[in-house]
Amino acid sequence: MGASNSVVECQLPKLKVAGSNPVSRSSSPSAHPSRLRVRLHWSICIIVMLLSLTACKPDPLGRALKGEFEPNVNNLVILGYCQSCHIHRTLNPSEHLTHVRTLYDRVPYTTTTQCRACHLVSEDTWNMKHRKTIFPTDVAQNRYIAHERRFLKDNPELAKGTQ
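The structure assignment produced for this chain is given below.
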């Protein structure tokens, strides 16, 4: 016979004999997590916690558009947001308000001193917030009657000019 088979001896551990079962004594990373891995885990936990805390902070612009501050504070917050845009960086609030009031045909837009009369925030079905500007054409087409009523209810001094 030309081919020879080599036999590899395999000694299996004897059953129920002390010291016959092999024990792994190596320190593999999966058996003992390294300090670096533990630190990474805790760092990620802390970052997630901090991010969740900052997500709970209410949006000051949204609160200002809903009228949750005093009228002058609402205007300052809304103005700050408008001026953060490169188009409205030089926006002068008193000139803007004086000019814009002439473009509308009814209260509250013609008599208001609050930016939020023409600017609002709404939520859709999925609670996504949308910031909107109510343009004179929208008012002429009665698209924001519900907003007008809410605004006049919150500001009864402006309602005197109706009727």
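Interim note for the steering committee: The mean pLDDT is 78. Helices lie at 35-55, 60-65, 71-83, 93-101, 136-140, 145-154, 156-159.
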